[in-house]
Amino acid sequence: MKNYTQQREVLSLALEAFQRSTGLAAVISSHSETENIISISHKNVKYAFRANIKLNLTKAALTMTAVDATTEKSAVSKEILVARYITPQMSEHIKGLHKPFLDTAGNVYLNEGDLFVYVKGGKLKQASAQSPLKRPFKPAGLRVIFALLCNPGLEKASFRNISMAANVALGSVSSVVHDLKQIGHLIEIKNQGRQLIQKKELLDKWIMVYPEQLRPKILISRYESIDPSSNNRWQHVEPNANFYWSGEIAAKRFLPELQPSLVTVYIKQPLNEFLHQYQLRNAADGEIEILDTFWGFDDKQPSSNMVPPLLIYADLIASGNPKNHEIAKLIYEKEVLPLVQEDYP
Q1: DSSP code of 236?
Q2: pLDDT score recorded for residue 150
Q3: 20 to 30 A Cα–Cα from 13, which one of 184, 239, 287, 307?
Q4: Which tens digits make up the pLDDT trace of 151-196?
Q5: CA–CA gap between residue 313 and residue 339 (Å, rounded)
Q6: Which helix (H) or strand (E) holds 75?
Q7: Structural domains of the chain, with CATH
Q8: What are the start-end ranges of the E strands in 24-174?
Q9: Contact assessment for residue 49 and residue 78, using Cβ atoms and an 8 Å cutoff
Q10: Quick one: which of 28, 68, 72, 63 has its CA closest to 49?
Q11: How do 115-119 and 186-189 pair as beta strands?
């Protein structure tokens, strides 16, 4: 309910800012907890849009919007992105994708029929700045949530076992568990112990925050083969106990015709050993990105050469590459959604 209230507030503020910056009339023509339809009038014509409200807009959130769009059912097919704030750089990016948007600072892009509006550079009032991240969505908390989502029932285990699975300090688990209860994602059931709830919402939050809060801390760098002619060999290298595939190259298991443009590798061995073994050198735009393995549990997937499916999906989303939408949606529906089925009514 709190999230719904926040979204309605952002929508109302965005429509007020839209009218100030454009002089056009815009109203919420119908609404529910699952859908808001807005109507914009121009030259005696009314344009209807289904509002997709993002409290904190990131490239990951934008990619998730594209992935989800094909599964949404609505009488209004046209969608408009509504956010608290859209930076000038993000405005250009979204406009390039031909997606209409508006925010609470009066920034807007519409290109529908005779209606064309593009305003960017509007500043967000200080009082409207987004609230700081809660502890579960900072790096240690994200590790704990990742372990819980990948291992249904782990929340019932001892704090020590959770800390080992998440690869975090014991004290961090206690704090994150406390905060997950406070924000409505963990409850205590008599004679059953702790129960993770609203897992789909928790997953969505994790996916959106992971690229900015955790991924930069585990990303080592980008690399290329010392012999450039052997770069493509990575699509044929068999992973072993020293590293896992993720992102596009892991997605080939689900869509064999996919041609990876980026090789994502999570390593377990010392970096220098890995670089020497595979003859790699640092390159800012190299086709190989290397990250540290950040979890402590053993994945139970049929192929131990891949990171857990949730991380494959997250890395595809984090890439911001539109060509990954189809495969991300496939992995989400086949491998990720089953992880967040509710066990509690």
Answers
A1: T
A2: 95
A3: 184
A4: 999 999 999 999 999 999 999 999 999 999 998 999 999 888 999 9
A5: 13
A6: none
A7: 2-128 (no CATH), 135-207 (1.10.10.10), 215-340 (no CATH)
A8: 25-31, 36-42, 45-54, 79-83, 101-103, 108-112, 115-119
A9: yes
A10: 28
A11: unpaired
Query: Contact 321/261 with Cβ under 8 angstroms?
Result: yes
Res 74: pLDDT: 54
Q: What is the pLDDT of residues 320-335, one digit of tens each?
A: 787 888 898 899 999 9
Question: Reduced to 3 DSSP states, what percent helix, strand and coil does the chain have, rounded to the nearest 5?
Answer: 45, 20, 35
> Residue for token digits 């249904």?
152
Q: What's the average model confidence in pLDDT over 340-344?
A: 73
Element (H, E) at 143: helix 139-150
Query: How far is CA 60 from its chain centroid?
Result: 4
If one compares 187 and 5, the residue with the highest pLDDT of the two is 187
201 class by beta-carbon count within 10 Å (0-12 exposed, 13-18 middle, 19+ buried)? middle
**Running DSSP on this structure, what letter comes out for residue 252?**
T
